[in-house]
Amino acid sequence: MKKALVTLIVAFQLIGCSSVKSQKSKMTTQDIYGRYERQESSEKLELKLDGRYILLNPEISFTPVIEQCEYASTGKWSMVEENVIEITSENYYTKQKGFEYEIKKDNKLSQDSLYIKIIFPTDFHPVNLNFTFNYKNSKSITHGDTYIVLPKSEYLWNRRTAINQISFSLNANVSGTEIYKSRVLFEIFEESIDTEKYNYLTIVLPNFDRCFFEFEPFYQDLILVRDSKTIIWQGDEWKKQD
User: Fold this and answer.
1) At residue 101, does pLDDT exceed 50?
2) pTM score, two decimals?
């Protein structure tokens, strides 16, 4: 963190800003809080007086808008040095609703196979499905479809061992993407399931929507405060709105 802070301060000076030491008085939370707009963009960062922040998405001018998310990130902000603040997104200290799931267990079709069906709240799910079965067995599969059929003899324990440890995660498909701001890995669950009693699993992800998927994570990300009207973040100036 200290290394990153030094780098930011050097960059701050290179663009002609006053150094921290040249400030006549130390900035306070009362001086800094407010809504800032990124220059050459309609993206906004709101620093609330109660210590929360909201990174608002750019305004979309064209229509129709398909599932436009109001904000890209939210979490906490605080002052860590004189004229330096940091933000940490909520996924680092709260369990977001997008990770919630429900498993419906049935027994049907061929007993030689394990059937897995994934249900998302919308058709938007540019992710690959990852399943791992039992640590020692170390069998896994990555699949792009929301319905898969697996032979028990290949992926699970001997049929006499009914309980299998199943881990499920999602990976964002970022192939061909130059800049990717959102999360890549989503670890959903790890459970022991009697696959002889239940061979058909329906996994429901009720809140895994576009807004959750595109949430931007930040951990102790530093922002320089130029003055009570200007902050420097992500290489750009953000001006406080009146």
Assistant:
1) yes
2) 0.80
**Contact assessment for residue 198 and residue 164, using Cβ atoms and an 8 Å cutoff:** no
Phi, psi of 152 (to 5 degrees): -60, -40
Q: Which residues pair with 143 in a beta bridge?
A: 129
Got the DSSP string for 53-72? Answer: EEEEPPPP-SS--SS--SEE
Question: Using 50, 70 and 90 to split pLDDT, how confident is the model at 174?
Answer: confident
Q: By the 8 A CB rule, do 86 and 23 touch?
A: no
Place of tokens 């419906």: 104
* Residue 22: predicted pLDDT: 44
DSSP, residue by residue, the chain: -HHHHHHHHHHHHHTTPPPGGG-SS---HHHH-EEEEETTS--EEEE-TTSEEEEEPPPP-SS--SS--SEEEEEEEEEEETTEEEEEEGGGTS--GGG--EEEEE--S-TTEEEEEEE-SSS---EEEEEEE-TTT-EEEEESSSEEEEEHHHHSS-TT--EEEEEEEEEE--TT-S---S-SEEEEEEEEEETTT--EEEEE-TT--HHHHTPPP-SSEEEEEEETTEEEETTEEEEEP-
